[in-house]
Amino acid sequence: MGQRAEEILAQARVVAPLAARRGDDGLLLAKAQGCRVFDADNVAYVDLQGGGGSNLLGYGNQYVLDAVRKASTLGLGSGFHATAEVELGEALREMLPAYGPWVLTSSEVLAWELALRWCRRDTGRNRIIVLDGNRRGAVEAFQVAAAGPHGHSQPLVAGVPAELARLVRVVPWGNLEALDAALSEIGVDVAAVVVDPIASQFGVVPPKPDYLAGLVDRARAAGARVILDETLTGFRLARGGAAEVYGISADVVVFGGALGGGMSQLGAVTWAHGLGATIGDDLPAPPQPIAVLAASATLSVLRNDAVHQRLEERGAQLQAGVEALAERFGRHLRCNRVGSIFTCFFSRQALTDGKSFARVDQPTWTRFARGARETGVLLPSRSPSAAFLSHAHGVKDVEHALLGMEQALRRMQKEDEL
User: Fold this and answer.
1) What is the pLDDT of residue 217?
2) 373-406: b (≥16 Cβ within 10 Å) or e
3) CB 268 within 8 A of CB 247
4) In terms of domains, do 25 and 126 share one?
5) What CATH number is attached to the domain comprising 398?
């Protein structure tokens, strides 16, 4: 880290402690372009964090920038529903014809609140079932953890009311028998079963064949709605997201992440056409026009089949390279991947559920991630965490990232020999 970056980080520790914490783990961003981010000393890093999944096309994508410039010239203010929302709605309907209507929100959290309230109103029930691998984000209802042998929930963080936690049941990822048991006990009061299709709380866990379909069937048999979390996978794994990749259908789908084009926060909720869903009176404030226009630009790029083909090829290249490095250095370095979403971690066993997640070697990962950062490769500071490639990552960029990982492993090997 250079002098200017150190000075800003020291200042942040006084005036912006959360920024300082993130800066210690990664970097304080000064600018970004393509698949690279830069610190205050103009040091470049190949970015594998991907803006938490939002950076699908690459930083500063020309189509998205043009849309943002257009928004700035129109003088669109907040507080109004813009004509651009109608255009985006048409594009979404074209891309996902099985769903509608659409409600756009200014954040993923608002989209989740709307989806959960609708399910409770629609079913007349109160309880929610989530999986222990579900992405929590900033949704208060998801900040719970299973307590005791019966899976009853308790608040995961201070400030979440115990009464709220009791309305949520946590079920182990990948375990249909546990889901059957929960539905048998409380199924008559379950409004929705929420599923993150890649268990991103554990980084990335590809679902076993028929697991997601079995979950959907059981939830519907119990009279509960199925909410599919596409905030990371939507539009990234395929134009139809995880639903297309795994051949499942949901009653309600929540989108975010890549939909905003990496420029601004944007959430969306949609319903299966067959439900005939109507929107209640609990409507959120309109999204920012700049986010809506960026989303339209993103979807226009995704009409090209070559985008997802390129993402898959680069993901396969990275995974093969990581596995080759693990073998070469005799390390228990593993890589789980679905498309352009991946997680790397050190563990003697495969990552398949919450138990294997708890056995991952975090101290070794911390050494590795810091070593890679010193070579110009930015990995998540914690493991397993979801990491991302973008359309801007080329063959040479992935090779650069693998070379940085190799150098980090070589340094670790030398340190261990001392």
Assistant:
1) 97
2) bebbbbbbbebbbbbbbbbbbeeebbebbbbbbb
3) no
4) no
5) 3.90.1150.10
